[in-house]
Please model this.
Amino acid sequence: MSIQLDHIYHGDCREVLAVLPEQSVDMIFADPPYNLQLRGDLWRPNMTKVDAVDDAWDQFADFAAYDQFTEAWLRGCRRVLKDTGTLWVIGSYHNIYRVGRILQDLGFWILNDVIWTKTNPMPQFRGVRFANAHETLIWCKKSADQKTYTFNYHAMKQMNDEKQMRSDWALPLCTGAERLKVNGAKAHTTQKPEALLYRVILSSSHPGDIVLDPFFGTGTTGAVARKLGRRFVGIEQDGTYIEAARARIAAIAPPLLDAEVYGLYETKRTAPRVAFAALLEHGLLLPGQVLYFRKRPTQPRLCWPMVRCGLPTVHVARSTRSGR
Ligand SMILES: C[S@@+](CC[C@H](N)C(=O)[O-])C[C@H]1O[C@@H](n2cnc3c(N)ncnc32)[C@H](O)[C@@H]1O
Model:
């Protein structure tokens, strides 16, 4: 069976992964069930019920059942991931240690664990332990010996104000207009913020690459992949979530800019040069305009605009735009 791109497979990811072609995807992002094992309802001090993750898809008989499930889907991912690809898994303290051990046992090699610090976490209503304010992402390659994999170092640095991107990311939970609703209620209890997926996909894939998400939910991975000019493959067992994801992704216009500016040129050396005259001809710069190096804003100099991974950047200090 050939792989269908920009498509959501409806079914159990263990079964779907088993029939997808071997080594057919460039990157995987997985947001599996957490196995939260909640006991009883949770109430706020004002006696409103907390919208907790108590969905059937998150229930497992015991740790052994969860481990068996985890090993099965991770094996499936390993088979369909190219030998140059990488895998991301996100989880909480409930499951991430188990997932980490299993993926290491399967031969995956951890490149980083990233802490997503939630800037707006849910409070700990009972006051009996710390507010749970982060999740962990494990980023790994297929084996210790894997020589090649994608890491868009410069794109990440650019996103971080020209400093090396660190492994602790402070981002808000998915709220407001981004949160999908059905009849006023959350469409999904664990919809991830797009900002998180921007970092994941931008850092470890190229435009045109195939990004697989075996626990697609409401399609956050697909939505961001589409915005960044990547192809997606989703797997989800719940038809209601698939409907929500399809509508969400269909509403996204394909990238306006040519895919080339979305990351094919990762370094200054490989970035295409733009003729200075062409910028003048197209009215992007004005004759006589003073340009500044961003890092030395007080020293006017001519600088060469450069297209880098991510977005095109012209290093012109704002205050000089109208200056002649
Ligand atoms: C943590 S949620 C993912 C949420 C998603 N990242 C988003 O932003 O909407 C896990 C999803 O996996 C789905 N799921 C659970 N077990 C599955 C399985 N065996 N095969 C496919 N999907 C599964 C659930 O229905 C749920 O939507």
Summary: The pocket of S-adenosylmethionine is lined by residues 12-14, 31, 33, 57, 188, 190-192, 215, 217-218, 220, 235-238, 241 (CB under 6 Å).
